[in-house]
Amino acid sequence: MTAQDVNVGMQRRNSAGLRRDLELLEALATDEAQAAGGIGVVRLAEIVGRDKGQISRTLATLAEAGLVVRDPVTLGYSLGSRLYALAARTAESHLVRESAPYLRRVVAATHETTHLCVLRGGSVLTLASELSEHAFRGLSWEGVSTAAWRTSAGRVLVSEWTDDELATWYDEHGKDEPIVQVPSRSPLAGSIAQPPPPPPEKLIVTDLDSLLAEIRRIRSRGYATVDEEFEAGVVGVSAPVFDFRRHIVAAINISAPKARLGAHLDEAGRLAARAAAELSSRLGAIAKAGGELAPSP
CA separation (Å) from 87 to 57, 80, 82, 144, 236? Predict the structure, then answer.
């Protein structure tokens, strides 16, 4: 046997091992596993048709890597946090790639900077920005986190939640400062402070009841608007992006000085909603009867 034959044999065994690992991960991702909160070694062996000892050794290796986790009480296995983290990063990279042409289209139509935003707890994180010719010094908000309840993007991102879910979330995050975090690598680092407070009469969301009322308006219109609520002199609109499950995974946001965009907020909102709907279709979302995209029941 030559060295090349040995290498080919090792590659085949490694490939077969990877397939077996994936079989276990797929079994742990089934509805049965999710409903039970985990599956034991015996049941996993039945599902994949393999020896219990082999299953146990493989699970131990996957657990060391953080890809699965074992419940110390039930001894059942479930998918680990590291796997979810890897999946989230992959999904967001895919979102950024797919959104680029739609963001550029919105900028071309509005001549205003456009962002792709996602939710992080009580904050909105800007994943990508497409800059307009008006962008100050060409700076992007990518990587900057802002308080979700103060922004149109944040309100859109929670607009599919139940009233109880919104109440719990608002109780924890309803007093967050406007600017939450600016990464040190961001070009905005060291150059941005908390924005000037909005005029009191401009605040639409001041408590849970007003948040719930605003969420109902967002669902009805298909987009959200803010008029100096985040920052004095600044307005914005946002529309939801759905995935193949018809869950909101991102928002397309347009922000600009009120002097330029203030008189055209609803027009901009409808434009953002069209772009978001097209991106949603690209991501596999299917419109319900009537051609509209809406949160899943």
Answer: 24, 11, 9, 21, 30
Cα–Cα distance, 222 to 274 (Å, whole number) = 10
Read off the pLDDT of residues 71-119 as tens digits, 9 standing for 90 and up: 888 888 988 877 766 666 667 788 888 999 999 999 999 999 999 999 9
Q: Provide φ and ψ at 255, rounded to 5°.
A: -130, 145
d(CA 91, CA 108): 26
- The answer for residues whose C-beta is within 8 angstroms of residue 166's C-beta and 6 or more apart is 158, 208, 211, 212, 215
Burial class (CB in 10 A: 0-12, 13-18, 19+), 77: buried
- Tell me which DSSP letter residue 195 carries: P
Spatial separation of the C-alpha atoms in residues 71 and 217, rounded to whole Å: 43
- C-alpha Rg value of the chain to the nearest Å: 23
Ordered by where they begin, the domains of the chain are 3-79 (1.10.10.10), 84-282 (3.30.450.40)
